[in-house]
Specification:
The structure holds two protein chains of two kinds.
Chain A lengths: L7 H4 L8 E13 L9 E14 L4 E6 L5 H8 L7 E6 L2 E2 H6 L3 H5 E4 L13 H11 L8 H11 L16 H14 L4 E5 L7 H18 L2 E5 L3 H7 L2 E6 L2 E7 H6 L4 H9 L46 E2 L5 E2 L22 H9 L8
Parallel strand pairs in A: 3-8, 3-9, 6-7, 7-8
Antiparallel strand pairs in A: 1-2, 1-4, 4-5, 9-10, 10-12, 11-12
Chain B lengths: L14 E10 L2 E11 L4 E5 L6 H9 L6 E8 L3 E2 L5 H10 L1 E4 L3 H4 L6 H13 L3 H14 L5 H4 L9 H13 L5 E5 L7 H17 L3 E5 L3 H7 L2 E6 L2 E7 H6 L4 H8 L47 E2 L11 E2 L6
Parallel strand pairs in B: 3-8, 3-9, 6-7, 7-8
Antiparallel strand pairs in B: 1-2, 1-4, 4-5, 9-10, 10-12, 11-12
Helix pairs in contact in B: 4-5, 5-7, 7-8
The chains are: A alpha/beta, B alpha/beta.
Bound molecules: adenosine-5'-triphosphate (ATP), adenosine-5'-diphosphate, iron/sulfur cluster (2 copies) and magnesium ion (2 copies).
Chain lengths: 367, 329
């Protein structure tokens, strides 16, 4: 594999600084030792383990993975709500913790739509007051202009203007999420970060919100980071995808490329598990996701991987480049060509596997 | 479907639900629902949130509280479920019908080990001795894919993952070899790879036992993969029903089209969101309940309720595809 990537940083340093860059980010939580719920002994739980990621201006990225894979933790690191225990997390070239502590610019620029939209809204406030709150907090408009701006935001998310007088309890699940989006947009952010913002909704309500979000992203040039477990949603809304498993990004690249021919066996399993009209039910992956406190030796997917080989149980693959604009953390990636996601026969001497070994310690951001 | 009784082939269905209505206060949350479950088949109930899917399942289990229930549900060999005395109903729930819920964690009792819950169900419903019940429990755990069954029997629910908890629920539901299994979105709280395991498990276990299954689902694509027939509900009414292929590939009702058009298959980029929402129960139109959103609505639609009508597309009259619409596609 040749390193075909251009070196944009040298050409246009300012314009090409990513919005977010994570370099070998690790986040360890201290949790009670299992089986000893009442003792003070704790052990470290690595919710994120060596995460490398860059998100460019105007990009749309889907974070996909099973529960407990670290998606929400990654989001909290991006938002500066959790500091990495190791590695670096930058926003436009500066450490997130720095920019967050200096003024409101970061909070204004990076808006969040919570997973639990209803829980994030004060039930005693009207919709109008809820949307006016960030307008006031960030001094976006004068008091006189407030009602007009609230109306404009309601219209933008497809809610009737008279919803300003209503309370969240009188709104449906879809409407509540629209209010949460309107609130997030109030500060005129350039980045919108959303955690499962459309999950648990009906397909038709979901379709309404997805077309809304896609429109917003295109019209306003928003950078979008979107957590979802639905690959159909990811492929509709996001140009890039990062697939996580047990605290690691195991595959990343253009959503269409990754889903058309997954290189990581876990991506392939997710792809196969997605329902498809009248296809026979796929053979599911065996077993459960292991506990993050008791990771398998070697590759963390080796306990469930259909293409596991002997060396997988001793060597831990790192995320390394795999074709143009793609990376994968696997010792024996599936063919990334046009063909079927077949199990490759690559053994340790195959070029792909050797390449990954060589790159094991090369941060992606430097290649 | 009962809309086409003369077309129903000879073998007697397991369950015939006729004009099932449920009222809560002034709201009629189920309106004259008709459906038939053949022996050994899997029937999907699909529709938006609030359409009444769970209400149907709960009413059939006799577990609906605070509501007025009308209509009939004839279970072959037993009679009308909806008018059974409660003592008989409890017995029936142990022996012929059982249910799996969306949230297995909430359905299991946190205070007892899962083994104790399964064993007591076996003893109560099958009258087994403690020893036999325990042996049977180990078998059941193994058959639902729980490794190390002996050890897992002494686990408390919170010590198991969501997927494991749902396996335990499947084991408990199958404990009495039911004729009818009601599964209310049993996988929507689970991760996709675990979802696939549980759907396959439920299907293989019910098929192996010759049991029938009513599967409440949100996902039409998953319904097509796992169910023989599909009932589409909208605002408490059946709007279309029939064999999965007829309903999904030769649908007649505009709402079925809308539901289908919202399914986001991987790679799809041309999503068009439907307008509006389901009307609330206090503003339900007297005629077709879909009239407020329907692109094909005629003047009569909002005033007159369309009846469930057989679709004449049947190849040899054997299908029971039916729809309720004045201006079908
Ligand atoms: N305990 C209750 N009290 C009052 N109304 C209820 C109750 N349970 C259900 N309903 C109403 O009955 C209707 C049907 O609800 P049901 O739970 O059967 O829908 P569903 O199709 O299962 O929806 P979902 O997909 O959200 O599970 C809805 O309008 C709902 O608001
Ligand atoms: N505040 C916390 N304290 C301890 N453990 C946590 C905390 N937040 C997350 N975790 C653990 O970190 C892992 C990743 O969690 P999370 O980021 O929430 O995953 P996801 O959003 O992908 O479901 C899980 O094992 C979770 O239990
Ligand atoms: S490294 Fe081995 S076990 Fe891990 S995903 Fe690749 S093939 Fe599977
Ligand atoms: S009866 Fe009329 S309003 Fe109802 S679905 Fe048919 S065409 Fe639409
Ligand atoms: Mg999460
Ligand atoms: Mg329900």
């Amino acid at each position: 594999m040749t390193r075909t990537r251009s070196e944009p940083l040298r050409d246009k340093p300012a314009a090409n600084t990513p919005v977010f860059e994570l370099i070998d980010v690790e986040k360890t939580f201290q949790v009670p030792k299992p089986g000893r719920r009442f003792s003070r002994e704790t052990v470290g739980l690595k919710a994120l383990d060596g995460v490398r990621l860059r998100i460019n201006d105007g990009a749309s990225l889907a974070l996909v993975g099973e529960s407990g894979s670290g998606k929400s933790t990654l989001l909290r690191v991006l938002l500066g709500l959790d500091a990495p225990t190791d590695g670096r997390a930058n926003y436009r070239g500066r450490p997130i913790s720095d920019v967050r502590s200096k003024g409101t610019e970061f909070a204004r620029d990076v808006a969040l739509v919570y997973q639990d939209a209803r829980g994030s809204l004060d039930p005693r406030m009207t919709v109008g007051a809820l949307i006016a709150e960030p307008l006031r907090h960030f001094g976006i408009v004068s008091r006189e202009e407030e009602p007009a701006r609230v109306a404009q935001l309601l219209d933008r998310v497809g809610l009737p203007v008279d919803s300003a007088q209503r309370y969240p309890s009188g709104l449906s699940g879809g409407q509540v999420r629209r209010v949460a989006i309107a609130r997030a947009l109030a500060s005129e952010p350039s980045v919108l970060v959303a955690d499962e913002a459309v999950s648990g909704l009906d397909v038709s309500t979901q379709a309404q919100l997805l077309t809304l979000l896609r429109g917003l992203q295109q019209d306003m040039g928003l950078t979008l980071v979107f957590i979802t477990h639905d690959l159909g949603v990811a492929s509709y809304l996001c140009e890039k995808i990062a697939i996580m498993y047990l605290g690691r990004i195991v595959e990343t690249g253009a959503t269409n490329d990754v889903l058309a021919a997954p290189a990581h066996p876990y991506s392939a399993a997710l792809r196969a598990a997605a329902p498809r009209f009248f296809e026979p039910l796929p053979e599911p992956l065996p077993g459960e996701i292991p506990s993050p406190l008791d990771l398998p030796k070697g590759c963390r997917f080796s306990t469930r991987c259909p293409s596991v080989k002997g060396d997988c149980r001793t060597r831990d693959p790192y995320l390394a480049q795999h074709g143009v604009g793609r990376s994968v953390a696997c010792l024996h990636p599936l063919s990334d060509g046009e063909g079927l996601p077949l199990v490759s026969d690559a053994d340790m001497s195959s070029p792909a596997a050797a390449d990954i070994q060589n790159q094991t310690d090369t941060p992606l951001s430097r290649d | 479907m009962t809309g086409t009784p003369t077309l129903t082939p000879a073998p007697q269905p397991l369950l015939i639900v006729d004009d099932l209505s449920v009222h809560r206060g002034a709201a009629k949350i189920l309106d004259r629902v008709k459906l038939t479950v053949e022996k050994g088949e899997t029937l999907a109930l699909v529709g938006e949130s609030g359409a009444g899917k769970s209400t149907i399942a709960t009413a059939l289990m006799g577990l609906l509280s605070g509501a007025k229930v009308e209509g009939h549900a004839e279970l072959e060999g037993t009679g009308d479920l909806l008018s059974l005395p409660s003592k008989q109903l409890v017995k029936l729930r142990g022996q012929r019908i059982s249910m799996i819920f969306q949230d297995a964690g909430a359905a299991l009792n946190p205070a007892y080990t899962v083994g104790r819950q399964l064993i007591s169900a076996l003893r109560r419903n099958l009258g087994l001795s403690r020893r036999d019940a325990r042996a049977r429990a180990v078998d059941l755990f193994s058959s639902v894919g729980i490794n190390d069954a002996e050890a897992r029997l002494s686990a408390f629910p919170h010590q198991l993952s969501g997927g494991m908890q749902q396996r335990v629920m499947v084991a408990i539901a199958l404990a009495c070899n039911p004729d009818l299994l009601l599964a209310d979105e049993p996988t929507s709280a689970l991760d996709v790879t675990i979802q696939a395991q549980i759907v396959r498990l439920i299907l293989s276990q019910t098929r192996a036992r010759g049991a029938s299954c009513i599967f409440v689902l949100h996902d039409l694509a998953l319904a097509s993969q796992s169910c023989d027939r599909i009932v589409v509900l909208y605002a408490g009414q059946v709007v279309e029903c029939g064999p999965a292929r007829d309903v999904l590939e030769r649908h007649r009702h505009p709402y079925t089209r809308q539901l289908k058009s919202c399914v986001l298959e991987i790679g799809r980029q041309d999503l068009e969101a439907p307008e509006g929402t389901v009307p609330s129960h206090d503003s339900m139109p007297p005629g077709c309940r879909f009239a407020t959103r329907c692109p094909r609505a005629l003047p009569r639609c909002a005033a007159e309720m369309p009846p469930l009508t057989p679709a004449s597309d049947d190849r040899d009259g054997a299908s029971d595809h039916a729809f309720a619409c004045w201006n079908p596609e």
